[in-house]
Structure formats: C-alpha cells, structure tokens
Amino acid sequence: MHNVLIVAGNYLFNIITGLIVINALLSWIRPNPDNPIVKVINGLTEPILAPLRRFTTFGALDCSGIAAIILIEFVLYPLYTFIINLIF
Fold it and tell me: What is the CA radius of gyration of the chain?
C-alpha cells in the first residue's frame, strides 16, 4: 500500500514541477493571459510561486520557480516519503 502512495506522490510532485517549468517558459514568450490553458497553469502554480517571490526576486530576476523546484525535490518529496513510511 505504501509503495502505491509513494509512486502517486512522485507523479504529483513531477506534475507540479513540470507545470512550474512550463510557467517559467511561458513567462519568456508572453502568451495571451486570457488563454484558458495559460489561466489553468497560472492558477495551479501561483499559489506555490507567490509566497516564494518575496524572498527570491532580485531586481528583475525572479528565481521563485527554481526555489520551488528545489523545495519540492529536496524538502517536500523526501518529507512526504518519510511520513508515508512512518505511517505504513
């Protein structure tokens, strides 16, 4: 049972990481913000990126995406697997 939860969590964290990368790429090409796909990607990633922007913006350089990916890969996912292993 716990292996299924760990794999599902891995997929979830990978999807979130992919959405953050897509959001960063979209910020470079500036698509129409009224596009439904852009709205969905922004709606899913902004709750993660907005709090990090206070600490990771240096002038015009926004490093919140990199900070979020590092946080997910090195803190949240290991913590998630530890908790799942602890419970099961």
Answer: 15
For the chain, how many structural domains are there in total? Answer: 1
- Are the CB atoms for 24 and 16 separated by under 8 Å? no
Domain that holds residue 17: 2-87
- Nearest-CA neighbor of 13 among 67, 79, 76, 64? 76
76: which 2 tokens?
């949240």
And the tokens for 37? 């796909």
Residue 57: strand pairing partners: 62
Closest C-alpha to 20, from 59, 60, 53: 53
Q: What confidence tens digit (pLDDT) does each residue in 53-78 have? A: 999 999 889 999 999 999 999 999 99
